[in-house]
Amino acid sequence: MNDQFESLRRLLALKRHECPPPGHFDRLADRIHTKLQAGLGAVAPTWWERLVAQFDIRPAFATALALAVGAAYFYGWSWSHVVEAQAVGPRAPSSTPWMMASQVPWPAVAAEHELDSRLPALASRSSVHPIMGMEPDRGWLSPVSTDRAGQVQPLDFRVRQR
Amino acid sequence: MAAALHPSDVEAESPPAVADAVLVKRAQRGDLGAYDELVRRYQERIYSTVYHMTSNHEDATDLTQESFIKGFRALKSFKGDSSFFTWLYRIAINKTINFLKQRKHRHTMSLDNLDFNAEHDPELVALISERTPRRDTSLAELQERLNEAMQKLSEVHRLVVTLHDIEGLPHEEIGRLLDCNVGTVRSRLFYARQQLQAYLADYVK
Predict the structure, then answer these.
(1) Phi, psi for residue B115 in degrees, rounded to 5
(2) pLDDT, tens only, B49-61
């Protein structure tokens, strides 16, 4: 110790002379023994009690656990915002009454217009009105009626003129 | 008090009949008698450190008891990386620091009596006689002033003073206990001594 603290060292020596009353340690050991004996018959500590017990032994473990929980919470919070943002896509205005639900919503219409330009054969089908769109598709090979309307004619498969 | 001695010093002086490791193994299998032996072996040193940290006999007794009970419950997790005493000491120190943080503003001292040897300690006698001829009164007063000054230190600074200047542990051992390097221990000790010297200016030249 430095000389500058020599007097302090002599003063601190006084604390070594502070002693508990006689017999104190015998009583303390007995108390600990009694408590432990009572504890052995008790219910085993839960996983949570064992976890908290670790905190006193390893404060670093407590800090790491707190950081991990914080990080998981932050990740969950930020992820929920991403999902929320994806869910808020083009959709019908919320003011649309429920009776209007059978009508084609505007994004569907837009999608079908787009489809029209690309696939004319499929464009006549509505994804929203499946019954109305059930008329047979006119493909490249389709039955073609002759001029004799009203009469039953045999089917004639030829390449349709466009 | 035996607490002023280093654990390894004590073991070197009077080797225990049964090694700690053997008692720990038996206690881990639920042998309460083996753990009782460990309690009797180390309770004075644990109590001493906790007492010097709290300056309160009742708090120190409760914290010592709780530390040993917690030690027994956590004994399964003791892998023997350090000595049992070091492991238990850490439990007691962490428990004490947590307790001190909680009681921050409601502190009352409850000091242990000075033993008979205090009045005959040549260093103390010299120190007191320089100050006052009323030796008995001054020792009690000095004890109170000293504990008040200790309680003014932060927990970490009080801890290094307790472990080094009162308990007599070397810097390296304190570093291992507190999980910090020797430089940190030394700098904390220097700062703590400066603070104490200022608080006890009436008694320290």
Answers:
(1) -75, 170
(2) 999 999 999 999 9
Q: Do B70 and A56 touch (CB under 8 A)?
A: yes
> Can you tell me the distance from the alpha carbon of B172 to that of B155, in angstroms, rounded to the nearest whole number?
19
- Quick check: helix, strand or coil at residue A78? helix
Longest dimension (CA), chain B: 58
Q: Residue A37 domain-assigned?
A: no
User: How do residues A73-125 score in pLDDT, each as one tens digit?
Assistant: 999 988 888 877 776 655 555 555 555 555 555 555 555 555 555 555 554 55
Residues of B in contact with A13 (CB under 8 A): 121, 123-124
What's the structural domain count of chain A?
1
Report chain B residues whose CB lies below 8 A from the CB of A28: 43, 47, 61, 64-65
Interface of A with B (CB under 8 A): 1, 4-5, 7-21, 24-25, 28-29, 31-33, 35-37, 39-40, 45, 50, 53-54, 56-57, 59-60
Nearest CA to B18 out of B5, B36, B4, B1 is that of B36
Whether pLDDT at B14 is above 50? yes
What is the third-level CATH fold of B137-205? Arc Repressor Mutant, subunit A (1.10.10)
pLDDT higher than 50, residue B10: no
CATH for B1-111 (1.10.1740.10, 3.10.20.310, 1.10.1420.10, 3.30.499.10): 1.10.1740.10
**Partner A contacted by B137 (CB < 8 A):** no
Residue B92: is it exposed, middle or buried by C-beta count within 10 angstroms (0-12/13-18/19+)?
A: buried
Whole-structure pTM value: 0.63
